């Protein structure tokens, strides 16, 4: 048997920031000369198109949405509305930080230096074709993937079950049951830099990525759930959210 393991990072965001979304859209519509409720409705309805870049950049998107509302904003209007729109949505994307926790240091376990955000770490096991098999309870986001996997007893359980797992280099040292790509380890005495991989090592990594890639479709499936991408509840409720999503995915 073969499986793929990886870590999923769910970002903790400020639930109060959602209250700011509607005023931002209303003000942007007003600056573009569009009826504010109408602009907000059309903007929300175009989410699917915006995520795949149908209209191009932010400026082109605002122009397209305004035209859908029956307006034709000038370059001057767009020049004023664009900075407002960007600054407003930058606030919406900010991770949640509890000011009391910041003073006491209680938020530090949830801050991931890799992701540059506060969040939770969830370990995932998927089948070679991307079928979700198992998700772990959520741990603070600062936890390294290998440390999180060991805390859940994942490497030992895979070895005991005779399951060969594929993972990225974050799981280096997880044991014989987990295969990771080749890494550059030796320094060149002449240059002081890591020596490049040999052609054989590159071929091994290519084959490894080809086998691991389909299994990581489960990661994309989890990211489809906005409730996991931006967790607005208490971190203590993250495990409940993950389990609920897992149930819905498996039931589907």
Beta content: 5-15%
Largest sheet geometry: 8 strands, mixed
Number of domains: 2
Secondary-structure class = alpha/beta
What is the mean predicted local confidence, pLDDT?
A: 83
Number of strands: 8
Uncertain runs are 95-103
Give the distance, in angstroms, between the N- and C-terminal Cα atoms.
24 Å
- Shape summary: elongated
| Count of runs of 4 or more consecutive helical residues | 12
Order of helices and strands: EHHHHHHEEEEHHEEHHHEH
Gyration radius, to the nearest Å? 23 Å
Q: Which range best describes the helical content: under 10%, 10-25%, 25-40%, 40-55%, 55-70% or over 70%?
A: 40-55%
What's the quick description here?
With 252 residues, the chain is α/β, with parallel strands linked by helices. The protein has helices spanning 21-31, 36-45, 47-51, 58-68, 75-92, 99-104, 145-151, 154-161, 199-215, 217-223, 226-229, 238-251, and strands at 2-12, 111-112, 117-126, 132-135, 139-140, 164-166, 178-179, 230-231. Strands 1, 2, 3, 4, 5, 6, 7 and 8 form an eight-stranded mixed beta sheet that branches.
Itemize the secondary structure elements and their pairings.
Elements: E1 2-12, H1 21-31, H2 36-45, H3 47-51, H4 58-68, H5 75-92, H6 99-104, E2 111-112, E3 117-126, E4 132-135, E5 139-140, H7 145-151, H8 154-161, E6 164-166, E7 178-179, H9 199-215, H10 217-223, H11 226-229, E8 230-231, H12 238-251
Parallel strand pairs: 1-6, 1-8, 6-7
Antiparallel strand pairs: 1-3, 2-3, 3-4, 3-5
Structure description:
Helix content is 47%, strand content 14%. By secondary structure, the chain is of the alpha/beta class. It has two domains: 2-13 and 102-251, no CATH class; 16-92. Strands 1, 2, 3, 4, 5, 6, 7 and 8 form an eight-stranded mixed β-sheet that branches. α1 (21-31) packs antiparallel against α5. It is elongated and about 65 Å long. It starts with a strand and ends with a helix. Residues 95-103 have low confidence and may be disordered.
């Amino acid at each position: 048997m073969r499986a793929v393991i990886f870590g999923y990072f769910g970002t903790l965001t400020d639930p109060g920031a959602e209250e700011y979304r509607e005023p931002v859209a209303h003000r942007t519509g007003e600056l573009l000369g569009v009826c504010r409720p109408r602009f907000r409705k059309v903007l929300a309805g175009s989410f699917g198109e915006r995520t795949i870049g149908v209209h191009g950049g932010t400026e082109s998107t605002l122009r397209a949405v305004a035209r859908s509302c029956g307006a034709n904003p000038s370059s001057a209007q767009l020049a004023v509305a664009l900075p407002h729109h960007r600054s407003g949505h930058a606030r919406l994307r900010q991770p949640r930080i509890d000011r009391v926790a910041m003073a006491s240091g209680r938020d530090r376990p949830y801050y991931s230096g890799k992701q540059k955000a506060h969040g939770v770490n969830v370990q995932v096991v998927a089948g070679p074709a991307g079928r979700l098999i198992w998700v772990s309870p959520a741990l603070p986001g600062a936890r390294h993937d290998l440390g999180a996997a060991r805390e859940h007893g994942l490497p030992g359980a895979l070895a005991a079950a005779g399951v060969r797992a594929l993972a990225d280099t974050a799981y280096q040292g997880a044991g014989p049951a987990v295969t990771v790509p080749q890494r550059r380890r030796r320094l060149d005495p002449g240059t002081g830099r890591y020596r490049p991989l040999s052609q054989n090592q590159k071929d091994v990594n290519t084959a490894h990525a080809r086998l691991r890639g389909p299994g990581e479709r489960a990661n994309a499936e989890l990211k489809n759930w906005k409730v996991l991408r931006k967790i607005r509840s208490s971190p203590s409720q993250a495990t409940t959210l993950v389990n609920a999503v897992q149930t819905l995915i498996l039931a589907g």
